[in-house]
Amino acid sequence: MANPFRLGVVFTHPTQHHGPLWKKLSEQPNLSVKVLYLSDENQTAGDKFLGNKAQAWDVDLLEGYEYEYLKALSGKVPSTRKKTVISPGLVSQLTPQNFDAIFMQSFVNYSYRLTAALCKLRGIPLIMQNDATILSDMRYSRLRRVVMSFMYPWMMNLADYWLSCGDHNEIHLRHYGISDDKIIRGCHPVDGDRYRQTIAHRQADIQRVHRQWAWDENTLLYGFVAKFIERKAPFEFIDAIVKAHRQDPRVRGIMLGGGDLEPAINARLAELNGEVVNVGFVNQSELPLYYAAMHSFVCTSRIDPHPLVVSEAMASGCPPILSDRCGNWGYSDTVCHRYNGLVYRFGDSDALASAILEMADAETRQRYSERSHRVFDGQDLHFAVQSFLEVANRIQLSRGKGASVGQAVVASTPGQSSPTLSGKAVNL
């Protein structure tokens, strides 16, 4: 029997999205996975950006795959992500004898940069993925963007392969000089199986959530799920809901999350008549119930490269509305305007209110909901697995070992008519 392809992963901390991916990859034929974590954030405490009410995630992030926490120079495993963390254990771990390829997400911290250097020095193929877009780059100063124009082509080409996560992300990669033969279409993972199972088995709880936050059975719930921070633009959501409610009294907004702006948000909501309510922090096991209880999900971010909450909502059958500053809309991306959701111009609360009112139509919502399910089926955890298998097979072929990792599955995007992973077709 051939030796398995050995994939090493260097990752900042366990997450609710990637833990299931590492598990699913570990189940693939002829593939072994080991994850090297740089901190144990989310295991003992909640996300610090969600405020003091946040809790550690209540879903298993470590089941079904091999992992190891690496110590920093201090001799201890960091409890939070830090840009300056250096994990000396990478020097002994990242060798051709241990791994056939290494995956990491970015160059944001010093350990990631050490990883890239070790891979180049030791001839280990480096696979990378991020969610950056030209839209998100605009937050930087002009001077920084000039520096990026010189540095990024060299830095990003240190990777042998890039797993893209959408249309805007691929534009970003090509803008900085990544050739098409290095780009493999992938996605950021969402465990759709968990969402589907939770919704299927907890219908009574979904009804309970709706009754708790709705005025009556006619109420239309529009959800905001995010950190309460400036770039997520929570006040744009509030203002638009208030405007839409004036024209359609069924409209109500619910906000899930927490963060620095929560006191200001609560003060604003206190001035209203219940058009918007702050639900607060909701943990991972309960989130699918809230998405399923919503009639539409709204993402108002000023800067958001590829927010996974949009995919979570779609996995729950909740049609999305998002600002044009979010990087996950496009002809073959997560949201295609007027196909499975609506995109509005950021900063225009009147336009958002109009989109909210358009989504109040039951037939429109149903059509977008069904299509969102189909689109997500072609961009779910299984599709993420296939992108990893494809790059592993390319590496095997380049070494003359043959394509023998995993099993190929054909997937499609909204602009194509080939079968999706679920066997359905997605046609415009």
Give the topology, please.
Layout (H helix, E strand, L loop, with lengths): L4 E7 L6 H9 L4 E7 L28 E4 L19 H5 L7 E4 L5 H13 L3 E3 L5 H4 L4 H15 L4 E4 L2 H9 L7 E3 L6 H10 L1 H11 L6 E8 L6 H14 L3 E8 L3 H9 L5 E5 L6 H7 L2 E4 L8 H8 L4 E4 L18 E3 L4 H10 L3 H16 L3 H18 L30
Parallel strand pairs: 1-2, 1-4, 2-3, 4-5, 5-6, 6-7, 8-9, 8-11, 9-10, 11-12, 12-13
- Tally of helical runs: 15
* SS elements, strand count: 13
Query: How can the largest sheet be summarized?
Result: 7 strands, parallel
Strand content: 5-15%
Distance separating the two termini: 45 Å
| CATH class designation of the largest domain | Alpha Beta
Number of domains: 2
Strand arrangement across the biggest beta sheet: 3-2-1-4-5-6-7
General shape: globular
Radius of gyration: 22 Å
Helix-strand pattern: EHEEHEHEHHEHEHHEHEHEHEHEEHHH
